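User: Reviewer 2 asked us to show a designed sequence for the structure in our supplementary figure. I'm pasting the structure tokens here. Could you produce the per-position amino acids so we can include them in the response letter?
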């Protein structure tokens, strides 16, 4: 076993189910009662998927992608005592500008939720004359204040690191196009103030492994470890009947996270269950968050399934790190600084 340590606040009540006996060779297993969020969960919302949660006041809170019955996605707030059963607010999250005036995006999808210092940041895909990254902050989950869109269009899948590195906020993103983007690598950018972003670097690209050969994108907020940042991300294959989204894992350098230390050549989870293979968009497992605890080593992964449901999967920190290291294949453009 690896002696790598997870560096994160203790969470006593990580949602959890032990590994079923029949799962022997895989480091990640699913919650038996998946999906944890089914169809039509809120009046006027047809599907909730691709959503992010955090521990909050000994319970859990989350920002959920709710696709309304008119096909437009917005963010809905949900609360849970156990991280599994969720209650949603009826109305979508109302964003305001710095002066407190209403400032709603035209749409909002694939939100991530990351606590940095004392503030919770929501990062989502927004319409900024095309798909781009939207950001807002809150300290009380009552007022959600938008901050400047960090990047130009087109971009998606932005994921903030949970702390500053070398004095700067760090964010992963995936430059894209305006449609169903048939390409894409993960990049990282830095900011001293969450306003001005620069020092852009390439982190990792599509690989020659089939399951992530078309495009990749950040997933859950990276988990700090004694050696580097554990990243769950999505990798996409283009097949003759459409895209297939799987979950991958990598460990990025602690001080220079544009360098990949380890990258698992195998997917960690790929569509296999009915709720992943069948839905609005079949064959999608799309990770957006983890709840994790350094004391027990438990990690619960929240992922969108088939653009229709939310699924929950589990792994042990030690085992997933060992698995990623054991099956690591990196290329020179993963391990370099990502500057050209
Ligand atoms: C991507 C995003 C995700 C979605 C996926 C599969 O481009 O739009 O929200 O889960 O496609 O449809």
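Assistant: Here is a per-position design you can include in the supplement:
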């Amino acid at each position: 076993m690896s002696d790598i340590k997870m560096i994160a606040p203790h969470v006593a009540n990580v949602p959890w189910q032990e590994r079923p006996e029949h799962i022997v060779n895989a480091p990640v297993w699913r919650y038996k009662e998946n999906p944890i969020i089914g169809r039509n969960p809120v009046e006027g919302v047809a599907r909730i998927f691709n959503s992010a949660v955090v521990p909050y006041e000994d319970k859990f809170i989350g920002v959920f992608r709710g696709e309304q019955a008119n096909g437009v996605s917005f963010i809905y707030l949900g609360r849970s005592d156990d991280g599994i059963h969720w209650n949603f607010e009826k109305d979508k999250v109302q964003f305001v500008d710095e002066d407190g005036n209403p400032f709603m995006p035209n749409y909002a999808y694939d939100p991530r939720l990351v606590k940095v210092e004392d503030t919770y940041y929501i990062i989502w895909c927004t319409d900024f004359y095309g798909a781009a990254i939207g950001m807002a902050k809150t300290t009380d989950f009552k007022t959600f204040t938008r901050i400047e869109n960090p990047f130009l269009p087109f971009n998606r899948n932005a994921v903030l690191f949970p702390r500053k590195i070398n004095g700067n906020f760090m964010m992963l993103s995936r430059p894209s196009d305006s449609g169903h983007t048939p390409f894409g690598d993960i990049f990282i950018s830095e900011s001293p103030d969450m306003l001005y972003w620069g020092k852009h670097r390439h982190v990792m690209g599509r690989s020659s492994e089939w399951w992530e050969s078309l495009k990749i994108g950040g997933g859950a907020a990276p988990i700090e470890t004694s050696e580097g940042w554990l990243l769950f991300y999505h990798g996409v294959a283009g097949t003759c009947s459409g895209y297939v989204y799987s979950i991958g894992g990598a460990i990025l350098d602690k001080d220079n996270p544009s360098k990949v230390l380890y990258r698992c050549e195998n997917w960690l989870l790929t569509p296999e269950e009915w709720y992943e293979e069948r839905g609005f968009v079949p064959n999608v497992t799309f990770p957006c968050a983890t709840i994790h605890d350094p004391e027990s080593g438990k990690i619960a992964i929240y992922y969108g399934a088939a653009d229709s449901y939310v699924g929950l999967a589990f792994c042990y920190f030690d085992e997933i790190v060992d698995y990623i290291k054991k099956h690591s294949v990196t290329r020179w453009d993963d391990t370099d600084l990502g500057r050209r």
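For the response letter, you might also mention the following. The chain has a mean pLDDT of 97. The longest strand covers residues 45-56.
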